[in-house]
Amino acid sequence: MLHFFRIVSIFVFICKKITLKFAQDTIIIYICMQNMINNYTLKSRNDFTTNDVINICESMWQPLTDGERSLIAENIIMRSYTKNDVIYRIGYEPKYVMFILRGRVKIQRAADDGSMKIIRIFRDDQFFGFRAFFADENYTTTCISMEDTRTVLFPTNVIKSLIDNNKTVMRFFFKELAMVLGMSDDRIVSMAQKHLRRRLAETLLFLLKSFGTDEEGWINGKISRSDIANLANMTTSNAIRTLSSFRAEGIIELDKKKIRIVSPEKMDFISGKE
Fold first, then answer.
1. Considering the entire predicted model, what is its pTM?
2. Residue 192: how many CA atoms within 13 Å on its side-chain side?
3. Whole-angstrom distance, CA of residue 254 vs CA of residue 196
């Protein structure tokens, strides 16, 4: 941020020295400064270093030996994706276990009618794409980025070595697999037994828990109505009508693709948790 304030200070100084006669030059300078600020912001979002990744791993898997830190540093790959990029497809061999530094991805599986259904969503600071590796099979799902996303790719042989030699890493992935299994069980029951309002309420609470909120209480990020409908296993039109109903009842607020849950207690009650 220090560079940012320096840029702004330089711009203000230049503006004070320029008279109305040189207004056109002022506009040109402003555009140049804006581009510099945008480039700095982009770098701040995506410029993760190998040391950053090592520190993240240390926070999850303490203690790591010097050899394990070196193994990670020498083999990881950092990769960026833009919105709607395919990260892997059904049938691909899992060569990496992936971790999200910033962004969101959705995991989809083909239904009997050929449509793609969202079965999971992953966000910042979460691993994904590991189930197929541990099951020793090719991917049975497709993974797509929901927004600009920065990831770290851990080669599967690195993960295997860490698990074989570090009990903390082994327990970590056991817990990850157990949580994924538990979420799948919950969704099976929900989709089979709950009506539209309950399914949508449960989906909104899932998004709230998964992504948190900003300072004003809006669920972080934007998610399309079609993705919400997909998660709740309903048509987009039904999702839109039910969202409008929740808004009319004062349970949520909507602002284009942004959602704020005003009454979590009522949402819990509708979802059947109370």
1. 0.72
2. 6
3. 19
Q: At what angle do helices 50-61 and 66-75 cross, to 10 degrees?
A: 130
Taking Cα atoms as reference points, which of 45, 155, 141 lies closest to residue 101? Answer: 45
CA distance 76 to 79: 10
208 Cβ neighbours under 8 A, 6+ residues apart: 219, 261, 264
- Predicted confidence (pLDDT) per residue in 59-100, tens digit: 999 889 999 999 999 999 999 999 999 999 999 999 999 999
Is it true that the peptide bond before 264 is cis, omega within 30 degrees of 0? no
Q: What angle do CA 251, 255, 258 make, to 5 degrees?
A: 85
Phi, psi of 217 (to 5 degrees): 90, 0
CA distance 240 to 157: 45
Q: Residue 66 forms beta bridges with which residues? A: none
Helices 156-165, 167-193: axis angle to 10 degrees equals 110
Single out the residue of 137, 130, 140, 138 nearest to residue 163, CA to CA. 130
Q: Which of 140, 127, 137 is nearest to 61 (CA)?
A: 127
- C-alpha span between 147 and 85 (Å, rounded): 9
Measured between alpha carbons, how far is 265 from 167 in angstroms, rounded to an integer? 40
Pair of tokens at residue 217: 């209480």
Structure tokens at 54: 């090592």
* 148-203 per-position pLDDT tens digit: 999 999 999 999 999 999 999 999 999 998 887 776 656 655 555 568 888 899 88
Rounded Cα gap, residues 2 and 139, in angstroms: 44
Check residues 125 and 5 and name the one with the higher pLDDT: 125
Neighbours of 14 (CB within 10 A): 14
